[in-house]
Write a structure and sequence with these properties.
12% strand, 2 strands, 104 residues, alpha+beta
C-alpha cells in the first residue's frame, strides 16, 4: 500500500504524520477494506514501512501472523546515539574486523 500522500493515496490535511497514524491506515485497510481477520496477515516493511509495521504490531498485535522488518530503525531522534558515540562505535568496529551490513 502507498503511504499517505504518495501514489494514489489521499493526503489528509496534516503537514506531519506519525508512524502511528500510518499504522492505523494499515489496520484499517486490512480489516475494513479487505475484510481480513485476525492472524491472517504477514506484514513486510522496508525503511519507513518497517517503522510503520513495528508500530502496527504494537497497536494491533492480534491482527498479524508475522512481521518482517527490513533496513529500518526504531525511529525518532532519541533512537540515534550522539555524534561522539559514532567515533567510539567506529573504533570498536575497526577491532572486530569485516562487518557485513544486511540490507545495505
Amino acid at each position: 500500500m502507498d503511504n499517505r500522500g504518495i501514489g494514489l493515496s489521499d493526503a489528509p490535511d496534516h503537514s506531519r504524520w506519525r508512524t502511528a497514524d500510518m499504522a492505523h491506515d494499515v489496520a484499517s485497510l486490512v480489516t475494513d477494506e479487505l475484510g481480513w481477520t485476525e492472524g491472517q496477515v504477514h506484514l513486510v516493511g522496508y525503511s519507513l514501512g518497517g517503522m510503520i509495521v513495528a508500530e502496527a504490531c504494537l497497536l494491533y498485535p492480534h491482527l498479524w501472523r508475522s512481521a518482517t522488518l527490513m533496513s529500518t530503525a526504531a525511529g525518532g531522534l532519541a533512537a540515534f546515539p550522539p555524534l561522539s558515540g559514532f567515533a567510539k562505535l567506529k573504533c570498536a568496529m575497526d577491532h572486530v574486523g569485516k562487518v557485513i551490513a544486511v540490507g545495505a
